[in-house]
Amino acid sequence: MADFLINTVGLPAWLAWMVAAVVAAVLILHVIAGGALVFIWAERKIAGRIQDRLGPTRTGGKFGWLQSLADGIKLLAKEDLMPDGADGMLFRIAPYVSFCASFCAFICLPFAFDVVGQRLNVGVFFVIAVLGLEVFGVILAGYASASKWSLFGAMREAAQVVSYEVPLGMCVVVPVMLAGSMDLVTIAEKQAGWFTNWFLFHDPFTFVVFWIYVTCAVASVNRAPFDLAEAESELVAGFHTEYSGLRWSFFFMAEYGSMFLVSALAAVLFMGGWNGPIPVATLVGLSEGTGDTAHYLVRLIGLANLLGKATLGVLVMMWIRWTLPRLRIDQVMTTCLKYCTPLAAAMFLGAMLWQIALPGGVVPVLRRPAAEIREGWLQGPGGAVRSRDADGAKVAQVKS
Amino acid sequence: MMPGIATFADAFLAAPLPLAAINWHSFFFLLFAALACGFAVAVVAAENVVRMALYLVLSLGATAGLFFLAGAEFVGAMQLMIYVGGTLVLLVFGVMLTAQAPFVSIKGSGRDKVVAGVMGAVLLAVLLQAALSVKAWRAPAIGVVANPAATPIGMALVGVRVDEPGVGAPAKNVRPGYLLPFEIVSIHLLVVLVGAAYLARAKRRKTPRAIEVAASVEPPASVAEHAAIGRDRRRGGSVLAGGR
């Protein structure tokens, strides 16, 4: 986009880069905030249906679709309280720390071909590293609240998240190994074509790894049945007991943002990213890199694909939440250390051996021949090669 | 082309805007460097352990920002994963150990501060001397960019000095690389790790009801029961005969 601003609109380089950055950041912010608005409403409806009631029905006419907005206005109007013994600065800063961590992880998440905030060549690693920082805000909140419930909740969350990062990391390594890259764009690009090319169906081991990833992802974003940090039957509300108003809602935006993020990451790593189950665009004869107007349409389809997959993941998480009872803390730790971690390690080994023994897959008809895998992901629209040299030239341009 | 907007932009920028003249790379470098240094000072100046941990995380995060700015994305993500994530665990222990009142605030005496200041100044002087004596940093770093996979300092860390003139000369004329210091530091870290494990183990014996009890060999029993089992074992009796 910066290229467009420099070449077509005629802005100077520094302003163009800044505008491009702000647009990307605002779009990501909208994904998180708008997503939270929709998902909170969906969660109420789903919870209602599962518990044999209707959920919100009145606010905003049919289906109560304005319920989240009304909630938001209520939260804005609420008094912002702080306990007497609280550590003021830490108490105030904690929700923002959580939210920033959730936001930063979105930066290198590809939403469609070439629709990515900042393409990093270690994208997966960056997302996992930043996602783990969200717990930092929770610990700060728990400590600064000067409340025993908060502290207990925060300590539980810390133990849980730090433990579940281990199997989560192992699960994520498997698609990285298959794609031969840590770049999220490349990983999704390698799964183009029919849904049989998705890493989910690559071999039996990756199929199992996907479900381990789902378990660990649910645990690492603190959703039920792993929501020990806010177990309301024991800890009032856990780490956010003392929070109210907008600060409280920041924690919730961070939580819904993280849910969406791990779902989108699952889509990119295992379910082909923006590549749909049926390659509609390719069958029609369009492609992302053609450089004409049609490629925007292809990207729009890709965007819809990824958002749809990620939303599906979030809805499944809600379904799980309202179906399963909460685990005890020792059961949570047992699930992680005794089941998920060894299983993930074994599946990692299995996927590796499979890759050595059967690199072509069992059913060769379903696999694409290697020559068909497009190497065009390096080329932007108009065939311009985007590489580190080109970026370097841009940096030099900015400098001068 | 959109001439209207272009004209507007030209008019808008016709005024001598100082922004256009700024070297933005240097600007962000200085910004992140200042953040890292400022929060590092704040770590020392703070009295509360949890606040110290927060400042440490911010300082290390700014360092990660420096790495990203330099295009070293892997190192930056590593910095986030290992150092910032490690500080997280540090913070957990800080909270657990300082829940008691006497440790909530850590305040050094005046004498401590003087000693610490002198030590810090000496170390800083050594570091500055070492940093400023590297000639290559002041020259344009073209040679480094040409082969980003193995920079001279990276080669020196594995024991090959490519930046010295006598590369092809007999071995006694070539200065050794940094392999030995590197290994010494690694061994030092290993020793620290063993020491930390030893200390943690000694502590766990005193407080058997810690969270880690699930990982220990004994089932979670009360202290009295532990003692009873121990007595039975010393007497040579069976655990089951101990009245459980």
Outline the structure in words:
The complex is a heterodimer of chains A (400) and B (244). Chain A is mostly helical and 400 residues long. In chain A, 64% of the residues lie in helices and 1% in strands. Chain A is built from 15 helices and 2 strands. In chain A, strands 1-2 form a two-stranded antiparallel sheet. In chain A, strand 1 (110-112) and strand 2 form a beta hairpin. In chain A, helix 4 (88-105) runs antiparallel to helix 5 and helix 9 runs antiparallel to helix 11 (245-270). Chain B is mostly helical. Helices cover 64% and strands 0% of the residues of chain B. Chain B has 9 helices and no strands. Chain B starts with a helix and ends in a 9-residue tail after the last helix. Chains A and B meet through helix 2, helix 4, helix 5, helix 6 and helix 7 of A and helix 1, helix 3 and helix 4 of B.
Instruction: Provide the low-confidence segments of chain B as ranges.
Output: 1-16, 141-147, 213-221, 231-244
Q: Characterize the overall form of chain A.
A: globular
- Using CB atoms under 8 Å apart, which protein chain pair has the greatest interface? A-B, 43 and 38 residues
Helix content of chain A: 55-70%
Mean pLDDT of chain B: 68
Structural class of chain B: mainly alpha
Number of helices of chain A: 15
What's the oligomerization state? heterodimer
Strand tally of chain B, please?
A: 0
Percent of sequence in beta strands of chain B: under 5%
Radius of gyration of chain B: 28 Å
Main sheet: strands, sense, barrel of chain B: none
H and E order of chain A: HHHHEEHHHHHHHHHHH
- Approximately what portion of the residues of chain A adopt beta-strand conformation? under 5%
Order of neighbouring strands in the sheet with most strands of chain A: 1-2
**Poorly predicted ranges of chain A (pLDDT <50, ≥5 residues)?**
368-400
Give the total of beta strands of chain A: 2
Shape of chain B: globular
Order of helices and strands of chain B: HHHHHHHHH
Ends distance of chain B: 87 Å
